[in-house]
Write a structure and sequence with these properties.
The protein is mainly alpha-helical. It has one domain. It is built from four helices and no strands. The radius of gyration is 17 Å and the shape is elongated. The structure holds protoporphyrin IX containing FE (HEM).
């Protein structure tokens, strides 16, 4: 079980690297107007999203293996799963934003993306406390 948990944490950390960096690219993308930079950012966003998606899937598969394979239970896990569902929705919405930016259809400001960028930080803090401390 410890090997599964170790790789669960490794893929969670790698997934979060993408969940932190991709919205930061959106912040920059919403601020620039020259064609060369817009094209480069769109390329980076597409590559990053395609890279972080399978990593996220592996983090979730290993977490589910821990949950169902080793009989973990408790209020902490239910709360964690609810937050993880929010993270999956956030990830998929980022995928939609990648397409919108690539098509030049983004209408949101860089300020909006700065707030959007903070959401995964909050979720990470709560999830780690839930799974390590198990307060309920
Ligand atoms: C389908 C989604 C997920 C499921 C079912 C799941 C389930 C689990 C389970 C059962 C454990 C073992 C807990 C223990 O050993 O006490 C665990 C460990 C852990 N999970 Fe997840 N997890 C999921 C997603 C995530 C996500 C998205 C994060 C980060 C935000 C995360 C962070 C962690 C951490 C840090 C540990 C290690 C805790 C420790 O060793 O005390 N997990 N997970």
């Amino acid at each position: 079980m410890l090997w599964i948990k170790a790789f669960h944490i490794i893929f969670v950390v790698s997934w979060f690297a993408g969940l932190f960096y991709l919205p930061r690219l959106f912040v920059n993308h919403a601020m620039v107007s020259d064609a060369a930079t817009i094209e480069r950012l769109a390329l980076m966003e597409g590559k990053l999203y395609r890279f972080m998606t399978p990593i996220g899937v592996l983090a979730l598969v290993l977490g589910t293996w821990l949950w169902l394979g080793y009989g973990f239970a408790g209020g902490w896990l239910h709360a964690k799963l609810a937050l993880v569902a929010g993270l999956i929705a956030y990830h998929l919405y980022c995928g939609r934003l990648v397409k919108e930016f690539a098509a030049g259809r983004n209408a949101r400001s860089h300020v909006w993306f700065r707030w959007f960028n903070e959401l995964p930080v909050l979720v990470l803090m709560v999830v780690v406390v839930l799974v390590v401390v198990k307060p309920f």
